[in-house]
């Protein structure tokens, strides 16, 4: 009886894990790599190499004290907040893995990818600033959910995407966290 109960809980998790593994292989395969790097290259040309052209200007803004302008925080604090949401332990482990598997040449390709990725990050931050809102108490609120909801011509689609991304990521992480524990105990 206990085996049937355990089996009834394990089968849906196995099914979800197989679906997520298949989707993961399709999404994070060569297609996504080409899409991300291709988007970065396209935006680099479209924005006329903004990463290099505005580098000194952006560095001057970082060290300048906040005097005028709208917003709650200084440009330096905004950069640090953005970086804290972008760079994580996965990036550090990913760099170590890439260098150990690919050798020193992997570092060159990571730098090249990072340079074109800066244009993508610039557009992402610009959209967040463009679609942010000021609350009645004067604080600003915005980000990906706001530009997905307000930037896409179909607000319902933007709202659905804004809610689906974190939900699907949570389900995926949950399935990855549960799977090793379930396979540790074989059913006999």
Keywords:
single chain, 188 residues, mainly alpha, 9 helices, 2% strand, two-stranded antiparallel sheet
Give a description of the structure.
With 188 residues, the chain is an all-alpha fold. It is built from 9 helices and 2 strands; from the N terminus they run αααααααββαα. The protein has helices at residues 2-27, 30-46, 50-53, 55-63, 75-86, 89-102, 105-130, 144-151, 155-183; strands spanning 133-134, 140-141. Helix 1 (2-27) packs across helix 9. The radius of gyration is 22 Å and the shape is globular. The model has no long low-confidence stretch (mean pLDDT 78).
Integer count of domains: 1
The global form is globular
Estimated share of beta-strand residues: under 5%
Low-confidence sequence ranges? none
H/E order of the elements?
A: HHHHHHHEEHH
Structural class computed from helices and strand pairing: mainly alpha
Helicity level:
over 70%
The N- to C-terminal Cα distance equals: 12 Å
DSSP summary, beta strand count:
2
Query: In which order are the strands of the major sheet placed?
Result: 1-2
Number of helices: 9
Overall pLDDT metric: 78
**Radius of gyration, in angstroms, nearest whole number:** 22 Å
- Let me know the largest β-sheet: 2 strands, antiparallel
What can be said about this structure in brief?
With 188 residues, the protein is an all-alpha fold.
Helices and strands in order:
Blueprint: H1 2-27, H2 30-46, H3 50-53, H4 55-63, H5 75-86, H6 89-102, H7 105-130, E1 133-134, E2 140-141, H8 144-151, H9 155-183
Antiparallel strand pairs: 1-2
Helix pairs in contact: 1-9, 2-7, 6-7, 7-8, 8-9
């Amino acid at each position: 009886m206990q085996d049937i109960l355990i089996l009834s809980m394990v089968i849906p998790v196995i099914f979800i894990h197989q679906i997520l593994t298949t989707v993961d292989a399709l999404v994070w395969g060569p297609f996504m790599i080409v899409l991300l790097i291709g988007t970065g290259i396209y935006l680099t040309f479209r924005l006329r190499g903004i990463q290099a052209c505005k580098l000194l200007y952006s560095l001057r803004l970082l060290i300048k004290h906040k005097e005028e302008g709208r917003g709650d925080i200084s440009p330096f604090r905004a950069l640090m907040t953005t970086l804290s949401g972008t760079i994580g332990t996965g990036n550090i482990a990913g760099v170590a893995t890439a260098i150990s598997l690919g050798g020193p040449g992997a570092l060159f390709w990571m730098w090249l990818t990072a340079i074109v990725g800066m244009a993508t990050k610039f557009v992402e931050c610009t959209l967040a600033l463009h679609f942010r809102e000021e609350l009645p108490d004067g604080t600003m609120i915005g980000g990906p959910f706001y530009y997905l909801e307000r930037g896409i011509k179909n607000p319902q689609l933007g709202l659905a995407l804004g809610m689906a991304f974190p939900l699907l990521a949570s389900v995926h992480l949950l399935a990855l966290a549960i799977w090793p524990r379930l396979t540790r105990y074989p059913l006999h």
